[in-house]
Amino acid sequence: MGSYETACRYFDQASRQVGLSRNMQDLLRTPEREVKVEVAIERDNGEIATYIGYRVQHDSSRGPMKGGLRFHPEVDADEVLALASLMTWKTALVNIPYGGAKGGISVNAGQLSPGELERVTRKFIDKIYDVIGPLKDIPAPDMGTNAQVMAWIMNQYEKYRGFNPACVTGKPLELHGADGREEATGRGVAMITRDALDHLKIDVAGVTVAIQGFGNVGSYTAHFLDEFGAKVVAVSDASGGIYSADGINIPKLIEYTKDTGAVKGFPETEAISNEELLTSNVTVLIPAALGGVLTSENARDIRAKCIIEAANNPTEPEADEIFEKNGVVVVPDILANAGGVTVSYFEWVQNRQHFSWEKSRVRSELDRIMNDSFELVWKIATDKKVSLRVAAYILGIGRVGRATVLGGI
Ligand SMILES: NC(=O)C1=CN([C@@H]2O[C@H](COP(=O)(O)OP(=O)(O)OC[C@H]3O[C@@H](n4cnc5c(N)ncnc54)[C@H](OP(=O)(O)O)[C@@H]3O)[C@@H](O)[C@H]2O)C=CC1
Ligand SMILES: O=C(O)CCC(=O)C(=O)O
């Protein structure tokens, strides 16, 4: 099943609950604009390399469109469309004044030199600068991109449109970034994990956790859960995972990965595969890397009581049904990982006001939005006797649907 078909399965389930008409469903499912561009650069060795870049603008009924940029070899039009639609429901769920978009380039960023990465980024912006902008569509980091890439985006955009730091979020602190954006997605995931455990009457202190992916989201999730007293026993990256029944020393692992670029070989842990990580004997499983990793093939082997979707789209619908039957609580991506876009919104607000907030303010506003959103979704799920995913979509789709009707087409 393609990524967008998967995303639509979840959309369809919730729109039946909301009672959306067929015509309205068609309108909300259909992206406003899909852009596909050639991104050609000269590599350091003088050869020409050609990549394909995408930006999908899914819905703008609640405000400018917002969503990250992914640089990864598996990026394609279908995946970017699916991720853009998730952004529409996510921004509505946390009630920030945006629509949804997503972009990406099908490229292995790890195989490019810093100069090549910069040329790819600038060339992409040359091709899409006229469809993005602070009041149109605002990119941000996702897999394979970071604050440096956002700085190049801002600089390239400004060559066409003049000074306007609100054109992109997730920028470095020295270039109008928000203190607290880099950690925000992981902090939000950790807050939501604690909220979910509270509702399940499980103490976060000492709870066992496995996290797939140790990049921006995975490492900050581990950092904050470790601060809350959880025992992170397994983590992984693309090259494999590590396990320690006694709990991994997360601050030391973060230092270790800064030096080595990977989790493997970390002292006092045993090597495991990514598949073994997913099925390890833990209370909480947190996919924080690629989509589509929880499937009908492995769902019955998952031993966690609770899955917190830090990654976008990690669970295929068949696996979701198995989890529901088996009583595994799944906190969906559009709620669990909404901390990143929420602090992107704070960054955009600060840029537009030319006034920066203290990190303590960013954190407390983020924590409030994450906690309130979780409570609302939990209540809808309880009242309507639906899964947390359907409840989250009901909230998001309901808000987008009402805005669309009020605004007219
Ligand atoms: N950044 C953000 O603010 C947000 C991100 N997300 C989602 O979170 C997820 C992770 O994003 P982010 O942390 O930013 O990305 P990063 O690029 O910072 O990190 C990605 C991590 O995933 C690992 N990884 C890649 N491929 C695999 C694989 N096949 N198996 C296991 N691990 C793998 C990478 O390992 P290696 O380093 O070895 O390649 C790395 O540890 C994505 O789904 C993204 O859409 C959601 C909301 C916001
Ligand atoms: O920070 C943002 O604007 C977008 C983050 C993102 O891409 C996501 O939530 O999936």
From TrEMBL:
<dbReference type="InterPro" id="IPR006095">
    <property type="entry name" value="Glu/Leu/Phe/Val/Trp_DH"/>
</dbReference>
<dbReference type="InterPro" id="IPR033922">
    <property type="entry name" value="NAD_bind_Glu_DH"/>
</dbReference>
<protein>
    <recommendedName>
        <fullName>Glutamate dehydrogenase</fullName>
    </recommendedName>
</protein>
<dbReference type="Pfam" id="PF02812">
    <property type="entry name" value="ELFV_dehydrog_N"/>
</dbReference>
<dbReference type="InterPro" id="IPR014362">
    <property type="entry name" value="Glu_DH"/>
</dbReference>
<keyword id="KW-0520">NAD</keyword>
<dbReference type="InterPro" id="IPR006096">
    <property type="entry name" value="Glu/Leu/Phe/Val/Trp_DH_C"/>
</dbReference>
<feature type="binding site">
    <location>
        <position position="216"/>
    </location>
    <ligand>
        <name>NAD(+)</name>
    </ligand>
</feature>
<dbReference type="InterPro" id="IPR036291">
    <property type="entry name" value="NAD(P)-bd_dom_sf"/>
</dbReference>
<feature type="binding site">
    <location>
        <position position="185"/>
    </location>
    <ligand>
        <name>NAD(+)</name>
    </ligand>
</feature>
<keyword id="KW-0560">Oxidoreductase</keyword>
<dbReference type="GO" id="GO:0000166">
    <property type="term" value="F:nucleotide binding"/>
</dbReference>
<dbReference type="GO" id="GO:0004352">
    <property type="term" value="F:glutamate dehydrogenase (NAD+) activity"/>
</dbReference>
<feature type="binding site">
    <location>
        <position position="344"/>
    </location>
    <ligand>
        <name>substrate</name>
    </ligand>
</feature>
<feature type="binding site">
    <location>
        <position position="66"/>
    </location>
    <ligand>
        <name>substrate</name>
    </ligand>
</feature>
<dbReference type="GO" id="GO:0006538">
    <property type="term" value="P:L-glutamate catabolic process"/>
</dbReference>
<feature type="active site" description="Proton donor">
    <location>
        <position position="102"/>
    </location>
</feature>
<dbReference type="Pfam" id="PF00208">
    <property type="entry name" value="ELFV_dehydrog"/>
</dbReference>
<comment type="similarity">
    <text>Belongs to the Glu/Leu/Phe/Val dehydrogenases family.</text>
</comment>
<keyword id="KW-0547">Nucleotide-binding</keyword>
<feature type="domain" description="Glutamate/phenylalanine/leucine/valine/L-tryptophan dehydrogenase C-terminal">
    <location>
        <begin position="178"/>
        <end position="408"/>
    </location>
</feature>
<feature type="site" description="Important for catalysis">
    <location>
        <position position="142"/>
    </location>
</feature>
<dbReference type="InterPro" id="IPR006097">
    <property type="entry name" value="Glu/Leu/Phe/Val/Trp_DH_dimer"/>
</dbReference>
<dbReference type="InterPro" id="IPR046346">
    <property type="entry name" value="Aminoacid_DH-like_N_sf"/>
</dbReference>
<feature type="binding site">
    <location>
        <position position="90"/>
    </location>
    <ligand>
        <name>substrate</name>
    </ligand>
</feature>
